[in-house]
């Protein structure tokens, strides 16, 4: 049995936890461990609950991505936070190590994305005129916060501010500008010299508490594991 994910916060309304890389957000046909299953088991054991504990999934992270996730412990909480997500008051930031160097420290990507059901990949279109009518406009901002090398190849550490939350958005958009994320097997077009997990993580999450309305901020420190640790500030 997979270990219980790290819990960052818990009260009667919310549970905030860290999804490890390789763990599903929710179950699929593979039967592999997923966050909902693991956290429900944790609640049943901790509170000696009969039957299955309620836990509402509010958002997802791709299986290979590590990061902060918030779950609802009541249906009322689920409804209120879902509304925050729809109104884009929930704020999420990601870290990514990508191939290549940037000329500018900050930038943005605006493009149109459409999920291809046959390939399970997202197609990226630069303009609305080039995009199919079903494509959705997507927008992110990035900041270069470090430069390094992996297997002798130049890489950059980015902080990504996601303004729209489409499937595979960060992975597809960064690849579309020639900076694929290191370790990305779906969208990576860089040198095939890295065999580890995709170097993408959701490290920052802000949400208003559904009852107290207090602004809550959760942030993961930079990993001490390679190759993340080369960007640690001395």
Written account of the structure:
- By secondary structure, the protein is mainly beta.
- 14% of the residues lie in helices and 35% in strands.
- The chain is built from 3 helices and 11 strands; from the N terminus they run ββαββαβββββαββ.
- Strands 1, 2, 3, 4, 5, 6, 7, 8, 9, 10 and 11 form an 11-stranded mixed sheet that branches.
- The chain is globular and about 55 Å long.
- It has helices at 35-47, 75-86, 169-176; strands spanning 7-10, 14-19, 56-57, 66-72, 91-99, 106-116, 121-125, 136-150, 153-162, 200-208, 215-219.
- The protein folds into 2 domains: 7-87 and 206-221, Pseudouridine synthase, CATH 3.30.2350; 94-176, Pseudouridine synthase (2-Layer Sandwich).
- Specify Rg, calculated over alpha carbons: 18 Å
What is the number of independent domains? 2
| CATH architectural category of the largest domain | 2-Layer Sandwich
User: In CATH's first tier, which class of the largest domain applies?
Assistant: Alpha Beta
- First-last Cα distance: 38 Å
CATH superfamily of the largest domain: Pseudouridine synthase
Strand content: 35-45%
Structural class: mainly beta
Q: Please report the total strand number as a whole number.
A: 11
Series of H and E elements: EEHEEHEEEEEHEE
CATH T-level topology of the largest domain: Pseudouridine synthase
Morphology:
globular
Unreliable spans are none
How would you characterize the largest beta sheet? 11 strands, mixed
Give the overall pLDDT as a whole number: 92
Q: Indicate the percent of residues in helices.
A: 10-25%
DSSP helix count?
Answer: 3
């Amino acid at each position: 049995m997979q270990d219980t994910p790290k819990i960052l916060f818990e009260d009667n309304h919310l549970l905030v936890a860290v999804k490890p890389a390789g763990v599903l957000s929710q179950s699929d046909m593979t039967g592999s461990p997923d966050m909902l299953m693991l956290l429900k088991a944790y609640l049943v054991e901790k509170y000696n609950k009969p039957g299955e504990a309620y836990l509402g999934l509010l958002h997802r992270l791709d299986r290979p991505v590590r990061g902060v996730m918030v779950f609802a412990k009541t249906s009322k909480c689920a409804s209120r936070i879902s509304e925050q997500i729809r109104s884009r008051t929930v704020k999420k930031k990601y870290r990514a190590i990508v191939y290549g160097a940037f000329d500018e420290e900050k930038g943005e990507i605006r493009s149109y994305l459409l999920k291809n059901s046959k390939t399970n990949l997202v197609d990226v279109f630069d303009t609305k005129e080039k995009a199919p009518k079903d494509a959705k406009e997507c927008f992110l901002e990035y900041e270069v916060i470090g430069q390094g090398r992996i297997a002798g190849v130049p890489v950059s550490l980015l902080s990504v501010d996601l303004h729209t939350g489409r499937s595979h958005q960060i992975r597809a958009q960064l690849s579309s500008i020639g900076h694929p994320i290191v370790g990305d097997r779906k969208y990576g077009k860089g040198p095939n010299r890295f065999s580890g997990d995709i170097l993408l993580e959701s490290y920052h999450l802000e949400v208003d508490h559904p009852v107290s309305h207090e602004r809550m901020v959760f942030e993961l420190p930079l990993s001490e594991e390679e190759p993340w640790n080369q960007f640690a500030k001395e």
